[in-house]
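Researcher: Please predict.
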Amino acid sequence: LMMESLLFVLVADVAVAALYYFVPGPHIEGYVCDKDGDVLIYNLNGLRVYAIAVVTWVLLGMTNVLPYAYIYDNFYSIAFAANCIGLSLSLYFWYRGQDPNVFEPQRRAVTKDQRVGPQAPPSRLISHDDHAPPTQRSFAFDFYTGGEFNPRLGGLDVKMYLYLIGAWLLQVVILSAMMAQWEQQGSISIAMLLYVFLFSWFIIEYIYHEHVHLYTYDIFAEKLGFKLIWGCLVFYPFFYPIGVWSLVTAQKDLTVVEAGAIACLFYMGWMLTRGANMQKYVFKLDRTASFMGIKPEVIPDTRILCSGFWGLSRHINYFGEILQGFALALPGVIVSGSMLPLAYPLYYIALLIPRQFEDDRLCEFKYGVKWQRYMEKVPYRIIPFVF
């Protein structure tokens, strides 16, 4: 069974990698630069790859080559196999990052808005080392955080691939659980339909906006190490759907009113997260452009946006993500009485609150008194008028 699960995960990983490599898509300029100061170009075919991979899974289930409930029935062995692959890949990139010609010492990747000119050579790029406190290297630190920001193997951008395979695995885990409920109970509950619909929206909407995510924290501020590799291959697809398991066997169901209220909470969070991310994306493309009628306002002599969504709190997008997390946990809590689904939003709280404090620390180090002025103008960290 273990070898079968390992084969399943390997085939899935390789198949999605092949699709990502060969399926055409629009090529656009990203936000980050490579080590030579050249802006990275991305093939944004994520939605096409996702659609092909999901349809393939559906067809394999229809022909019983891969039963729909296979992932649900073999969840722990599949998760363990994914864990082995995630650890192995993390070790590979740790070893690769030990090469002085590969390792990138700065705290953040160089971005195209830091180039002195459109064809600025590396020697004329602004160093991030001046904008962050130094860190001491160790095996644990290098293994966890990585040594390179945006490595590529051939024509395959490793980060974008990991986001894609993680999203597809998450999707089929959820669909497999839904089909397991169908097989066990002969029907699919309102709670399950709502959960699958909202999580599918979360996944598809994320992939659809992959051009926006080229400008986000994960791309320019996080290197590729265990945190991202294991996170995408294991934690993302196998922990995120923790709320679905209690739905499979639950005998109780949501009312239409309860389902509607949960959906409203989810989309309230989505509007905050997507609105904030889109406003910042538009601002990075054109610092004079309005977003949804909101004119950009910044702290003088900085690029610190403090109007619209970013005037509500310093990380209103984090509040949106937490709200979405609670909305996805509620179906399982209500119909089963289990508190286990709450692990998902609590994970967001544990992740995002320390990240916000760290962001304040780094930005205060970088901007000094100007960041203090921003905190005076936008006093709330995440939740407006509360925190």
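Model: The longest strand covers residues 27-33.
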